């Protein structure tokens, strides 16, 4: 069996069996190296060389965790909860309106994080934990919020050529296709990617139905996390809002999530939201809250590096090309499935395009696919797996915000729902796009 396929299957099966994701990633990496004939020591060396790639993001999340705990100490979560409680009234209709208004606001912010305010996943640990008390009181299913967040993190970059979408569509997708022999002049990338994007919209609507029913959560852990004994005042709320705006502004200016979170945290300290004597404890509590996500990110970087160094990603792509023959329908389906497997393992659609474009573009040209169909094929093949990979920012980010009280499982409450509601519709939509464009 191809080492990449085996590693991804080992990682996924172990994760679904509730093995800690870090352990599943390490065992998956070892299986890839050993099956590829690398030997134990070179495999461990490749893994060690790769883990540095996830260190910066892990540190960013640790700092964001400290900032999130500082926000909780300001009393902002309970101010939000009190406001929503007043809005709910006694009628079920009001509850439903507030519930879906909250979902739409989160969706709008997630979409904006990819283009209007390109901060990617940095907003999640700051926005979502203060809202968990509100969500739990409304019995809002967090799996729906995970799907909403993942939709906002993925769909904009694969359809809108601005912000992160400009990088994915123009700088990576079109450039790599052009580098492999297909002229891109006059190609409207939105015309190629609108059908795959429609598949994502269909998945979001399905998630609204699947997770629209009430789900009970224990309020006690939330109250402990959010320091219910802290009383809020207009001054404290104003200070924490300034701190959040400063954190976003500094990140946009410097491009660093670490500096953004640090600036927000320091404002909370200077303004008295966090007492100086408690500063260490607050930061440590936040780091503990984000520890799991940070270690998964670091381990996932090592896992991806082992997959790259096996040399069997290219083998997987080329061997799939040999099976296709001249069957366009089978070719489109197989290319998308191989892209899904690669992105599930690497965890990054941005990193998948250079790997698959070198073989997919010449193959698709030889089979008579149109330029628009080729753009849709390669773009969809790369995006497949981003929603639904245990090692992807698009699933780790939502879990980081939704699991601060330990009531949201990364695999079963984020990865499985996003995989089912996005990868399957996207697979169908990408195939349809390849066949009709």
Note the main attributes of this structure.
single chain, 437 residues, mainly alpha, 78% helix, 0% strand, globular
Give structural notes.
With 437 residues, the protein is mostly helical. It has one domain. The chain has helices spanning 3-16, 21-35, 40-51, 55-73, 76-88, 92-112, 124-138, 142-159, 164-179, 189-210, 219-225, 234-254, 257-270, 279-310, 312-324, 328-346, 349-366, 371-383, 393-402, 410-436.
Question: Secondary structure elements and their pairing?
Answer:
Layout: H1 3-16, H2 21-35, H3 40-51, H4 55-73, H5 76-88, H6 92-112, H7 124-138, H8 142-159, H9 164-179, H10 189-210, H11 219-225, H12 234-254, H13 257-270, H14 279-310, H15 312-324, H16 328-346, H17 349-366, H18 371-383, H19 393-402, H20 410-436
Q: Note the total helix count.
A: 20
Class inferred from helices and paired strands = mainly alpha
Integer count of domains: 1
Give the CA-CA distance, first to last residue. Answer: 34 Å
Radius of gyration: 22 Å
Largest sheet: none
Instruction: Give the topology string: H per helix, E per strand.
Output: HHHHHHHHHHHHHHHHHHHH
Shape verdict: globular
Global mean pLDDT: 83
Percent range of helical residues: over 70%
Short note summarizing the structure:
The chain is an all-alpha fold.
């Amino acid at each position: 069996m191809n080492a990449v396929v085996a590693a991804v299957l080992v990682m996924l099966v172990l994760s679904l069996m509730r093995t800690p994701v870090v352990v599943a990633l390490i065992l998956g990496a070892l299986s890839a190296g050993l099956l590829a004939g690398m030997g134990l020591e070179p495999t461990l060396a490749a893994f060690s060389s790769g883990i540095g790639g996830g260190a910066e993001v892990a540190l960013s999340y640790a700092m964001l965790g400290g900032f999130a705990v500082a926000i909780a100490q300001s009393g902002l979560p309970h101010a939000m909860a009190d406001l929503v409680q007043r809005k709910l009234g006694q009628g079920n209709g009001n509850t439903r309106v507030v519930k879906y208004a909250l979902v739409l606001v989160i969706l709008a912010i997630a979409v904006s994080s990819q283009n209007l305010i390109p901060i990617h996943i940095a907003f999640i640990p700051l926005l979502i934990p203060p809202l968990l008390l509100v969500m739990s009181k409304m019995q809002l299913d967090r799996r729906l919020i995970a799907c909403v967040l993942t939709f906002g993190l993925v769909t904009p970059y694969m359809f809108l050529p601005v912000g992160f979408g400009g990088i994915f569509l123009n700088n990576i997708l079109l450039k790599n296709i052009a580098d492999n022999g297909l002229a891109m002049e006059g190609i409207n990338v939105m015309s190629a990617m609108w059908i795959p994007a429609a598949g994502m919209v269909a998945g979001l609507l399905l998630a609204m139905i699947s997770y629209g029913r009430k789900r009970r959560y224990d309020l006690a852990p939330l109250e402990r996390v959010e320091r219910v004994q802290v009383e809020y005042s207009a001054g404290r709320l104003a200070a924490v809002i300034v701190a959040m705006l400063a954190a976003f502004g500094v990140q946009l200016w410097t491009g660093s999530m670490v500096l953004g979170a640090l600036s927000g945290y320091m404002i909370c300290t200077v303004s008295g939201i966090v007492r100086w004597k408690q500063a260490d404890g607050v930061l440590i509590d936040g780091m503990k809250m984000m520890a799991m996500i940070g270690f998964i990110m670091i381990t996932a970087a090592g896992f991806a590096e082992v997959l790259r160094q096996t040399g069997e990603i290219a083998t997987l792509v080329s061997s799939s090309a040999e099976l296709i023959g001249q069957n366009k329908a089978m070719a489109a389906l197989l290319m998308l499935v191989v892209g899904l497997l690669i992105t599930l393992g690497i965890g990054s659609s941005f990193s998948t395009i250079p790997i698959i474009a070198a073989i997919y573009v010449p193959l698709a040209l030889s089979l008579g696919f149109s330029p628009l169909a080729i753009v849709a094929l390669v773009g969809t093949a790369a995006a497949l797996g981003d929603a639904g990979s245990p090692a992807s920012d698009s699933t780790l980010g939502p879990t980081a915000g939704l699991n601060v009280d330990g009531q949201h499982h990364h695999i079963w409450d984020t990865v499985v729902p996003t995989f089912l509601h996005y990868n399957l519709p996207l697979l169908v939509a990408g195939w349809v796009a390849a066949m009709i464009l």
